Amino acid sequence: MNDMTPTREQREAKLEGMGCKRKRVEDIRFTQGKGNYVDDVKLPGMLHGDFVRSPHAHARVKSINSEEALKVPGVLAVITAETLKTVNLAWMPTLAGDVQMVLADGKVLFQNQEVAFVVATDRYAADDGVNKVVVDYEALPVVIDPFKAMDADAPVLREDLAGKTSGAHGPRKHHNHIFEWTVGDKDLTDAAFRKADVTIKEMISYHRTHPSPLETCQCVCSFDKIRGELTIWGTFQAPHVIRTVVALIAKIPEHKIHVISPDIGGGFGNKVGAYPGYICAAVASIVTGKPVKWVEDRIENLTASSFARDYHMTTEIAATRAGKVSGLRVHVLADHGAFDACADPSKWPAGFFNIVTGSYDFPVAHLSVDGIYTNKAPGGVAYRCSFRVTEAAYCIERGMDILAQKLGMDPAELRLKNFIRADQFPYHSALGWEYDSGDYHTAMRKMMESVDYAGLRRQQAEQRAAFKRGETREIMGLGVSFFTEIVGAGPSKNCDILGIAMFDSCEIRLHPTGAGIARVGTKSQGQGHETTWAQIIATEIGIPADDIMVEEGNTDTAPYGLGTYGSRSTPVAGAAIAMAARKIKAKAQMIAAYKLEVHEDDLEWDIDGFRVKGLPERTMSMKDICWAAYNSVPPGMEPGLEAVSYYDPPNMTYPFGAYICVMNIDVDTGVYQVKRFYALDDCGTRINPMIIEGQVHGGLTEAFAIAMGQEIRYDEAGNVVTGSFMDFFMPTAVETPHWETDFTVTPSPHHPIGAKGVGESPNVGGVPAFSNAVNDAFAFLGATHIQMPHDFWRNWQAAKNLGVFAAP
Ligand code: CDP
Fold first, then answer.
1. pLDDT tier at 624, thresholds 50, 70, 90
2. Which residue, judged by its Cα, is nearest atom 7 of ligand 1?
């Protein structure tokens, strides 16, 4: 070996493979303003569409008059439900098996519902046209409070469902009822409650909120009449699914539909579903023969395209006096708004909420969920969440704290006592899941040691004593949360969208010079896939990550995939990438054996190529194998070096984490200060620790926002009162706390590289940590459960209700 020969470490470092803090390659264009977003798509002759929206939450539409609008210079057309009926598109199917009006058909059911679509030569003219459309409404009584939706005298919201006693998920018990979903053993659970020494029961609400990505939902539709082809550029988290849905409902052959998701500015679930804007822009393009752009503004995004949560969870836990849990019973009232447009895998009307037993060894459990209609926007998307796991984690983590309070036990000790033990994995939960791997005790103890949990509790006791003595007006809360996630939807045995199994895919093509391209069925919206997917390939086949270009989001070139949401990319597509790479490696081994004139079995892998066993100087690098693949393959072998993998995972992956929030609250003002926030995540094998840290920071910031104020709120008349960033809490760097991050590594036994998802974990674990901190602070004053969000005003009210203000 001469001095110029790179060492093993240097060869490994050059790959920038898994485990490397590789800088994000996509940031080169983003930080220079060279991204290409939907609004950057500008086509010759492009028209613009804008919606007339309902000011009412519930009203009959008596007439729509477009006469004056059509006189506005630049306005070319006003599309209404009557127009859409001529092409059978006035209603569209939802992902949840319901139907949804594209444009108001005789009635509106939520404020800002789409009523008419004005098409004009520019956005301003379209907006002027919108203001000139005259709609005659007759207001109807509204249903906003979910607890009143199934009253006997509640107004009928969905007249189109009159007489339908069952829906996509079974029987309906009331005209505003959508479904009832039950899981678990009711009799055994009821028996456990009868025998229990101690029980708790609390109605825990997770309020309605919204993913609110910086870039709103938008599209450009361009129909080529000569070719009969429709091209759609859109903010789609799942472009292939959109292509299939368009083919099914617009009856355009699927190969003549080209869906392109260019760069996307955040999705968080908001960009999974199909919205009226997409249909109207497509119809407008077909009608006018010109490309049509539709771009939502912020108010439209917050009030009309999707929402998240709105789960009201009556939670009961049974336990022994020593604090061992013996049963869990949960009933959820799920407010789905005007149409059931929840973005869940088809068979799961409440998503994966049955992960609600969390990280604890519950011998029995029973869950029932009632979905109901109200006069609110439809959606029910998984906001940085794997289909209602965030609600489930909040439910059980608040429940465990409430139980600890009743037992007079420390919440961390109660958790340690009830965790599923490492030797119990794979673990079958009482509500039907098989957890793949975990080591909860180690993670929890590491968290407790890192923050000096015992010291913090001592500090809290001193603070409480000082409060009692009147020396401070601040109360201190420690919010512990431990979560188990369920990500990687999913195995075809239990997950599909509209009948399409939720596999994912990767196609890798290596070029003669040793560079290549990987096309993947997922679509990054900021998660850094261009960086991390290349790292998996680098480790698997020894080509430097810099030499692999990653492409996603074009249905013409990427293999069919189910897209990116619910942290499914790494568990499903990440596996497909590794499997495609391994197919390439197998062929490469045959080529190397032929060139080195040895049997394949005499070769062994060595970082970036093959070497002959026992003869380390006889090697062939992957770069040289690429060249050989195009000029001297073994006789009978096809030239080229490429592979495709469609990966159907055998199971979900179950990441977990231990979080703690230390918070002080001033009882006179309700103002809180997050003193510390520590987050330990275990996502199995870590591909890029820097990206993981970024994902955790982002998710914690969203969790902070949701727990401490971010809410979509309606007044009694059904007006949205939080329709802009003036009212909807969007934390900036000023409000956002400092995050301390940490990790343990428990690989997934069934994933080819042992990786689990991570993107949404901090949202799942963060919200209960914040809420438990607030509740822990107020528990000292006698509170059992204070509903989120915990903004200053509500904290002040909580203090007032607990009587902390002495009479003068
Ligand atoms: O589906 P989504 O991309 O939102 O979530 P994810 O699979 O959790 O991945 C988010 C980002 O974190 C991706 O760039 C992953 O490659 C990266 N990641 C990682 O580096 N190591 C893991 N074990 C999991 C994710």
1. very high
2. 570
Q: Is 760 designated active site? A: yes
Average pLDDT score over the chain: 96
Going from the Cα of 17 to the center of ligand 1, the distance in angstroms, rounded, reads 14
Amino acid 22: pLDDT: 98
DSSP state of 38: G
Radius of gyration, CA atoms only, the chain: 28
pLDDT-derived band at 105 (thresholds 50, 70, 90) equals very high
Q: Is 20 in the pocket of ligand 1 (CB under 6 A)?
A: no
Over the stretch 392-433, which tens digit does the pLDDT of each residue have? 999 999 999 999 999 999 999 999 999 999 999 999 999 999
CA diameter of the chain: 97
Could you say which of 100, 218, 237, 405 is catalytic? 237
Atom of ligand 1 minimally distant from the CA of 757: 8
Q: How many CB atoms lie within 10 A of CB 108?
A: 28
Tell me, what's the pLDDT at 273?
Answer: 87
State the DSSP code for 231: E
Question: pLDDT of 217-231, one tens digit each?
Answer: 999 999 999 999 999
E runs forming strands in 745-788: none
Give catalytic status of residue 385 as yes or no: yes
Q: Is 113 in the pocket of ligand 1 (CB under 6 A)?
A: no
Handedness of CA 96, 102, 106, 111 (dihedral sign): positive
Looking at the DSSP bridge assignments, the partners of residue 134 are: 65
pLDDT of residue 143: 98
Ligand 1 pocket mutation pick from 652, 691, 748, 753 by most atoms within 8 angstroms of CB: 691
DSSP string, 106-155: SEE-STT-EEEEEEESSHHHHHHHHHH-EEEEEE------GGGTTSTTPP
Pairing outcome for strands 47-53 and 292-295:
parallel
pLDDT tens digits along 140-191:
999 999 999 999 999 999 999 999 999 999 999 999 999 999 999 999 999 9
Q: Given this model, what pLDDT does residue 807 score?
A: 59
Catalytic residue, from 172, 309, 384, 388: name it.
Answer: 384
Map tokens 């070029």 to a residue: 511
Give the separation between CA 242 and CA 300, rounded to whole angstroms: 21
How far is residue 136's CA from residue 122's CA, in Å, rounded to a whole number?
26
551 flagged as catalytic: no
Instruction: Judge if the beta carbon of residue 751 lies within 6 A of ligand 1.
Output: no
Ligand 1 center–CA 528 separation, angstroms: 8
Tokens representing residue 326 in the block:
């013996």
What's the 532 CA to ligand 1 centre distance in angstroms? Answer: 8
Distance CA 39, CA 107 (A): 32
From the list 385, 395, 506, 683, the catalytic residue is: 385
- Choosing from 531, 687, 756, 764 the residue with most ligand 1 atoms within 8 A of its CB, the one to mutate for a pocket test is 687
Ligand 1, atom 24: nearest CA belongs to which residue?
A: 757
Assign 621 a pLDDT band (cuts: 50, 70, 90). very high
Tell me how far apart the alpha carbons of residues 337 and 339 are, in angstroms, rounded to a whole number: 6
Asked if residue 571 has pLDDT above 90, the reply is yes
Which residue shows structure tokens 């990319």?
569
What gap in Å lies between CA 628 and CA 634, rounded to an integer?
Answer: 10
Q: What is the pLDDT of residue 498?
A: 84
**Structural contact between residues 610 and 598, judged by C-beta atoms closer than 8 angstroms:** no
Model confidence at 10: pLDDT above 80 = yes
Convert 644-697 into a string of H (helix), E (strand) and C (coil).
EEEECCCCCECCEEEEEEEEEEECCCCCEEEEEEEEEEECECCCCHHHHHHHHH
3-state secondary structure of 4: coil
**Is residue 3 over pLDDT 90?**
no
Task: Confirm if 702 and 715 have CB atoms less than 8 A apart.
Answer: no
